[in-house]
Design goal:
This protein is α/β, with parallel strands linked by helices and 357 residues long. The chain folds into two domains: 4-26 and 270-356, Aspartate Aminotransferase, domain 1 (Alpha-Beta Complex); 47-267, Type I PLP-dependent aspartate aminotransferase-like (Major domain) (Aspartate Aminotransferase, domain 2). 38% of the residues lie in helices and 14% in strands. The protein has 13 helices and ten strands. The protein has helices at residues 4-8, 28-42, 48-66, 79-88, 108-112, 128-131, 154-164, 210-213, 253-267, 271-289, 307-314, 336-346, 349-356, and strands spanning 73-76, 95-99, 119-123, 136-142, 167-171, 188-192, 204-208, 298-302, 320-322, 325-329. Strands 1-7-6-5-4-2-3 form a seven-stranded mixed β-sheet, sandwiched between helices. It has a three-stranded antiparallel β-sheet with strand order 8-10-9, with helices on one face. The chain is globular and about 70 Å long.
Length: 357
């Protein structure tokens, strides 16, 4: 088990960085691995086959992190392509229930499916469980909302889905690495690991229950999804893997070199401790501003004209703006000094009026 202090020491940057919800930061190990791989490439020492072992280890580590078996994990490059596989499996005329304002990668593929008769309904996150009915084929939602940081009521949603015989698909991109996640609770999960898990962009995962997998087709079938990967380079015969690996997408090899150590780090941490650390910092900012605590690692405040984000940026802090709000994400590299810097900017009299107005 890696302690929080040990993990913090593995990041070369992070002071004043409140952007984990947009882009995670690399560890020394990730940077070193990617530099070594680039040098191997430059000197002709790279072998495509060598990357398979890296991907196998990373798949297994991610499975352990998410409490599923490795044969339930598919790898890819980004979440929307994986969600498109799920959307293609929704029967004509069936209902997909989505969250109002959810990230588009979790919504657009289902909207495209409307052209063949799939019905898509959007409800507020806090009404998602009660909106599930016997007409619902799939409940598709993010565990943590990108725009607001709101955390879904997993127990209520999964219980309602089970009562009505609906499948569940959960995007864990804004949760994995920031809090404990149990992917076995859902029929499908998707996760792009470049945010809180701090992997390079281009390493994504999908988990599938065996029950749900039977309803899906590997519409992105390719050589890397073959039962024998290097024996699947040429047609006309196709023999795909018998487990979730049949949904693999051909990997961007250098990305996985950096992803391996990142995923391994977070799999070695007590994620309950990480969550408590992150939430405590966000709540400290809320206390300092005199606003309600949210109990979330992502803290957002109204910022319709972008003035709060501009002030934060001018002070040398890194945050983001989404849906008319200033968005700040607190992760393991942050501490009370970052809280103090945020408050020194946002508690200035000219800004307090904007916060409460």
């Amino acid at each position: 088990m890696t302690t929080l202090a040990e993990a913090q020491a593995q990041f070369p940057g992070g002071r004043g960085y409140l952007g984990a919800c947009s882009l995670g930061l690399p560890t020394f190990a990730t940077l070193e691995a990617m530099r070594a791989d680039q040098m191997d490439w430059a000197t002709g020492q790279c072998s495509p086959v060598r990357y398979d072992a890296i991907i196998d280890r990373t798949r297994a580590t991610f499975a352990r992190l998410m409490n599923v078996a490795a044969d339930r994990v598919a790898i890819g490059s980004h979440t929307s392509a994986m969600v498109s596989v799920l959307a293609a499996g929704v029967p004509e005329g069936a209902e997909v229930l989505c969250v109002e304002g959810d990230f588009s990668s979790m919504v657009f593929p289902f909207l495209v499916a409307q052209s063949r008769g799939v019905r898509v309904r959007h409800v507020p996150l806090d009404e998602l469980a009660s909106a599930i009915s016997s007409r619902t084929h799939l409940v598709a939602f993010s565990l943590v909302q990108s725009a607001t940081g709101e955390v879904a009521d997993v127990a209520a949603i999964t219980a309602a889905a089970e009562r009505h015989g609906a499948f569940t698909a959960c995007d864990t991109t804004q949760a994995g690495g920031a809090m404990p996640v149990d992917a076995s609770l859902f029929d499908a999960t998707v996760c792009h690991a470049y945010k809180w898990l701090c992997a390079p962009r281009g390493a994504a995962f999908m988990t599938l229950s065996t029950r749900y997998e039977r309803t899906l087709q590997p519409i992105q079938a390719n050589w890397y999804a073959g039962e024998d990967i290097w024996g699947s380079c040429y047609g006309p015969d196709m023999r795909l893997a018998v487990d979730a690996r049949r949904f693999d997408v051909s990997p961007a090899w250098p990305v996985w070199v950096g992803a391996e150590s990142a995923i391994e780090l977070f799999a070695s941490l007590d994620l309950d401790e990480v969550q408590m650390h992150n939430v405590a910092l966000a709540d400290a900012v809320s206390d300092g501003l005199g606003i309600r605590r949210t109990g979330q690692a992502i803290l957002t405040i109204p910022d319709p004209d972008g003035r709060q984000l501009a002030a934060i940026t001018a002070a040398g802090l890194v945050a983001s703006g989404r849906a008319g709000r200033l968005r700040m994400a607190f992760h393991i590299w942050n501490d009370e000094r970052d809280v103090a810097r945020v408050l020194s900017v946002l508690r200035k009299p000219a800004r307090v009026l904007t916060l409460v107005g």
